[in-house]
Specification:
Blueprint lengths: L2 H12 L1 H27 L7 H7 L12 H17 L11 H9 L2 H8 L3 H8 L21 H21 L19 E3 L2 E3 L1 H17 L7 E5 L5 H8 L6 E6 L1 H14 L5 E3 L15 E5 L11 E7 L7 H14 E10 L27 E8 L14 E8 L3
Parallel strand pairs: 3-4, 3-7, 4-6, 5-6, 7-8
Antiparallel strand pairs: 1-2, 8-10, 9-10
Helix pairs in contact: 1-2, 2-8, 4-7, 4-11, 6-7, 8-9, 9-10
Length: 402
Amino acid sequence: MGIIDESTRIIHEEGAAVFIRRAILRLARDLWAVVTWARDELDPGTRFCMSDLKKGLRESPRPIEKLSGDTLVRIIQAYLAAKKAQPHQPAPYQVTGDWASIAGDHHRNMVEALERRDPGSLRQILDNFAREPISRGLHLSGTLPRSFLARVYLLKAMNRSYRAWKRMTALPDDALEYEKDVGNMHGMDSNGKSIMLPAFNQSYFAQRITELLKGKESGVTIVEIGGGYGSLPYHLFKNAGFPGRYRYLDIPEMCVLASYFLMSHFPGKKFLLYGEGDPSSPGVDAPDISILPNFCLKDLPDRSCDLVFNSHGMSQMAPETIREYLAQVDRISRRYFLHANTELESASLVREVNYVNLNRPEFELSRHRWLRLYRFPELIRNDGIINPEFSSWEYLYERRDS
């Protein structure tokens, strides 16, 4: 719905007085944002300025082809195998709601290239994925500012997230950086690399996970439910010194993005894609990173990982899917369950879909087997929002009967 259509709806349904009041409040908010941006630009202590954003929004040079044609064929074969198996999975593992809409509308070009088994076209799409519709819902293409005010608000979110991040982590600033030539990343320029909003949240969680598992026996394994394009393992392996193995679970389309992103960054790692073998293989055959469709969660062995992580995935699922996933967490994790999700039931990416509040007894892990160590407001979100209503919370559970 366009601005004119939305304005007409408000006037028709709620009256001209409501429309005028909202317009005045919006104008006041925009003016205040511009004033605070101008103040920050003059402050030498401000981390990100408009010049950083302008440089960061420039297209990257033609990327170096970091993945071979054979690797792209592997990604295509894994996707096609996952899509063939997907319809035969139980109902909780079917894609619905937000992501069904996104996969149908925004992944079309990528899916067509995959179905044609066309590595050349797939490479072109993936080399630009951070600016393409296929990254819708990942706070990448959706955060590209298309107006001066949008740039002002993005700078405000970046600087606010940066200040919180500095207080919450001991990481150097270069831990936030992404290579521009993998996916044509954008955001703030930092020595020719990019810093984007998801980097604050994901590097924070990578550090927290590494600290939780520090001192455990070698070969620790984590499982991420809903891994997006692979930003968490990027920070785990690049900055946090994670010594173990990582298993990724998401819808087949996201598996394609994560495979491209992680295989481009970590050519020395051993990867396992769907249909290539057993992610639980022991010893030297064990993959460092397994990238699997979401329905593989039910096939992972009992007590086969040390920690399960989810960030803003479960609250977008149907209640029966959440209950199924939590049952699997209870079964496969021998130590921890860490997640951050929404507790405010409100409209999601698709108007008719609502977030689910996970702070309910029906979504609690068994108190006989699990101890909730904490629940506190999530201070750094992927989208840079700091919500005064505390709509997003971080949870940590520890297994009692390990």
